Write the structure tokens for this entry.
Amino acid sequence: MSGRVFVIGAGLSGLCAAVRLARAGRQVVLAEAAGQAGGRCRSYHDAALDMLIDNGNHLVLSGNRAVHDYLGLCGAGDALAGPDRAQFDFTDLASSAHWRLTPDEGPLPFWVTRARRRVPGTSARDYAAYLPLLWAGKDKRIADCVPVTGPLWDRLMRPFLLAALNTEPEDSSAALAGAVVRETLAKGGRHYRPRIAHPTLAAAFVDPALRFLAAHGGTVKLGARLRAITFNGSHAAALDLPDGTEPIAPDDAVILAVPPWSAEALLPDLTVPNDFRAIVNGHFRIAPPPQWLPKNGAPAMLGVIGGTAEWIFAFPDRVSVTVSGADAIVDKSREDLAALLWADVAKALDMDAPLPPWQIVKEKRATFAATPAQDARRPGAATRWRNLFLAGDWTATGLPATIEGALRSGETAATLAARHLGL
């Protein structure tokens, strides 16, 4: 049967592409090398903690258009939890200072004119200094365009950009940073209310997509690593999968939604990002103090200044920590990391408790380095083969490697595949 779509890789970009094409009525085959779908956005039962946890804390924002489109399409529109208004709590471990940012809902930033609502130690004029990010060129670093010192940088912009870019912000792409700012901070608080998957990443982003594919006649093959692609002129002609060679007709479509190093090995002469940054997550089985749990059931989120931990997420039954751009600590022993991160948690949340049961999750190649040089290596979704397309947060989405970027790449690949199929 011709007009089929083979999606290789069941991370969020592959799931998004598969769901969109299945909705359009195409026969979709989704093949994933791992034993479960989700890629880096996965949930699992951890034996050390004896509980279901996510591999890490993947925060999205209310203005992430592709996230909400994808969840709505999968029937999971209520799968994110968060506050009704944008608010962000921070603590400085060195000074024990605490503050909460409560920006205006609309695009006019009246909040920066009021000392009690802005970052301590800053003036309204400080915020205007970051406007050049909105029109920064692709060859510029953040440090080339805006101040990278002072209270506003240390207590808001650096933590925010490090979380978004997963790369040392000073050396990161100003254009990628500007894209994030344009879609969030510049649009007002209603566009950057923090949202986190509830109750788990799999329940929000993965399981609904798999159910959708099953209901629409899709086939999902787990533990099915693509070993090679055979090409015939301008077309992909066959896929070498564990259960045999799958012929690909010129009017079939293939979407390759795998990590960049895998895509590079499968496709001749493909240029991809080749420098990566780590993320370290720590999970602790302990209930946080009651005052840290919001009444709406969403996890509390706390930005940490001056510690190893960068963001703390307080759930009713556990506390989780995320460290972005974690290359400096990723090779430490898991035991040392647990003790280091727990010391920050205990101080930040004022918890007088010994190290509880813990788990450390390391992602050494979590994202490409969001530098101008690496951004320039990101390929587009179309390839020189007419029926083969790329998806992944490492492709040229115009955004850093985020959930939003991954889903947008899936949308783009699905659109190109649909056009090839004559939809």
Q: What stands out?
A: The two ends are 16 Å apart (CA to CA). Residues 105 and 189 are 4 Å apart (CA to CA). The chain has three domains: 5-42+201-274+371-421, 105-189, 276-368. DSSP finds eleven helices and 20 strands in the chain.
